[in-house]
Design brief:
alpha/beta; Nucleotidyltransferase, domain 5; 2 domains; five-stranded mixed β-sheet; binds zinc ion
Length: 358
């Protein structure tokens, strides 16, 4: 059990994914002070022993309260009320965080897609959430009265993989999160790649089929049209597949007997491999980690992708393609790790087995 007996330096500079983005610890806040300091001031607040994390998605919000040593204490989910407007989305995130907060919770971490200004705590543009210049951190801080840290959801997932998941300490890593859309977390030489405008890693909009099917982004032939969970289900249904199939897990369950599902699954795997060939040649990663909801398909996903990647690389060996042990929880776990960083509670004590079992 990790004893939060005082603020500790946030881990950084150890070459692991996203660690360099650890936010400065708040100062002078009783709820993040060590036990001794709290007692010394005669305050009644109990010893900090948990953080709350929220992973904001286009269809749902996942939230959990974690102990400081990584155990899940409580989990809740909410639908994301995108259709009700940005105010409703901010309210829902804040309500979920507040509902999970205990008197001994010391910080909140939020993982969110889109273009973010993490320093200002603002979502600059997240079309899947209907958010533009939305003060997400302030909304959650106001409701919870706790320190709140915002991190890009994929970089949060990357943080989780770099500390607890498939690639602890990897200096050159490609994380591909396959969900409603597709995004990538990149680590090059131990440094997470953010990009000039914070938009690095938009692997889902890499064109893989010239002149292919239209994408919601305005381009054609984008990877996520063919290989995301949403894209696979949409293409299956559009091609006359069983209308009862509404999730990628249901689609995967039909393999290999359903010929249409098998064909589209194969196309999706090859499209992903095409993007990975480009990525491998460009970045030379030591490992490719597949995460997000679609990674629940396990080897039914990784094997054909790995085979097609090897086939596409004529003169060099492919990097291994592995399924994240954290799966769809990577973003949530990463957001929790950022909250622990914010608290200064030494998240290095988190045990992979504990977090993975959550
Ligand atoms: Zn696109």
């Amino acid at each position: 059990m990790l004893a939060p007996d005082g603020p500790r330096p946030a881990s950084r500079g150890d070459g692991r994914c996203c660690v360099a983005h650890a936010a400065p610890r708040p100062t002078g806040a009783g709820q993040v002070a060590g036990l001794g300091a709290v007692r010394g001031r005669g305050r009644s607040r109990a010893e900090p022993d948990s953080v709350v994390a929220v992973d904001v998605g286009g269809t749902g919000l996942k939230g959990a309260r974690f102990s400081l040593d990584g155990a899940v204490l409580e989990r809740r989910t909410l639908p994301t009320p995108v259709a009700q407007g940005p105010g409703a989305v901010l309210d829902a995130v804040a309500a979920l965080a507040a509902g999970l907060t205990a008197p001994t919770t010391c910080a909140v971490g939020i993982g969110c897609p889109g273009l973010l200004d993490t320093g200002a705590g603002v979502v600059r543009y997240a079309p899947n959430l209907g958010l533009r210049d939305a003060p997400l951190v302030e909304a959650v801080r106001r409701r919870t009265e706790l320190p709140v840290v915002l991190e890009h959801d994929v970089r949060a997932a990357c943080l989780a993989e770099g500390r607890l998941g498939a690639a602890p300490g990897a200096r050159d890593l490609l994380l591909v999160v396959l969900g409603t859309g597709i995004a990538a977390g990149l680590v090059v030489g131990g440094v997470p790649v953010v990009g000039a405008t914070g938009a690095a890693g938009e692997l889902g909009h890499l064109p893989v089929v010239p002149g292919g099917e239209p994408c919601t982004c305005g381009q054609r032939g984008c990877l996520e049209v063919y290989s995301s969970a949403g894209g696979l289900v949409r293409r299956y249904r559009a091609a006359g597949g069983d209308a009862d199939v509404t999730t990628a897990a249901e689609l995967a369950a039909r393999l290999p007997g359903d010929a249409l599902a098998a064909r589209l699954w194969g196309e999706g795997a090859r499209a992903l491999a095409t993007a990975l060939v480009t990525s491998t040649l460009l970045l030379d990663p030591s490992l490719v980690v597949l995460a997000g909801g679609l990674s629940g398909a396990g080897e039914r996903l990784s094997r054909p992708v790995e085979a097609a990647l090897a086939e596409g690389l004529a003169w060099r060996p492919p990097p291994p393609v592995v399924i994240s042990p954290l799966g769809g929880r990577a973003g949530l776990v990463g957001a929790a790790l950022r909250a622990v960083d914010l608290h200064g509670g030494g998240s290095g004590a988190w045990a992979p087995a504990v977090a993975a079992a959550s």
